[in-house]
From TrEMBL:
InterPro entries: RecD2-like_HHH, RecD2_N_OB. Residues 17-94 form the ATP-dependent RecD2 DNA helicase OB-fold domain. This is Putative exodeoxyribonuclease V. Residues 159-250 form the ATP-dependent RecD2 DNA helicase-like helix-hairpin-helix domain.
Amino acid sequence: MDMQETLGLLGENEELYMKGLVMSTIFHNSENLFSVVRIQVQDTNTTWDEKDIVVTGFFPALHEQEAYIFHGKLMDHAKFGQQFKADRFKKEMPQTKQGVVQYLSGELFKGIGKKTAERVVDTLGEDAISRILADPSLLQTVPRLPLATAESLLESLRENQGLEHIMVSLNEYGFGPQLSMKIFQAYKQETLNVLEGNPYKLIEDVKGIGFNRADELGRKLGLGGNHHARLQAAILYMLEQESLQQGNVFMEREVLLESVTQLLENSEPVRIEQELLTKQLAALEEDMKVMTENTRVYVPSLYFAEAGFAAHVKR
């Protein structure tokens, strides 16, 4: 049965998924996290009836013999045949006592052997993982569990569960899997704190995100209009673009303010207060994020490069 027939059997809005154990990692790029893995299929709502399938997507190194659910679509690769292209993934947590013990005593949890894992599960039950995450103090009820071991276990649980939560949140903010992974690589466990605190940091920290994309997120988070973070980000972005696209090492102050105002008002139809914009330019200068000389405004690196060149010429 081909993919058109598969789609015909599904509800109009039903999302395709593949659930299974990771058998092997065929390819993993540690820089952009593009991965190719083979999984043993345990469940799927597609018409795929083979025992295993190749899954591609952007995710961190997955652990063999652990279960994941991948959401995406079946694709026909010209060279390698039919594969499942994942847009997002989720680690399937073990549901049985044996599975939870095996998980907690695995390589993800340093210093947690099988006997310790068994004590945790015997005390807290098969839903020990969700209970610990909801109430870490429950670890104090586990017999003969040293404080350092309990803290290490909790930290590892949060780290492994945190990635999933972050990826889901980034997807809700409109970022695709590849860009989401780039964002996660930049900020790790602090990703959501950084984004919700100042989404405009994405412009300088994550390649591929410009002002308009960051501004869209900023509006969702209530940082639109004349918010100081928005005004400062627009000033820095305009200076960077002027140097990259036009090759200029500085902008005249009035031209800069006019260009920034146009950028901001085109992105969001809100009048920009010039007094506030001027104030934020001064704040950037005070923080040495921009340099000024008379009516010229520079990116610091270009200012010092030009100053150094001028000094060299004078010798």
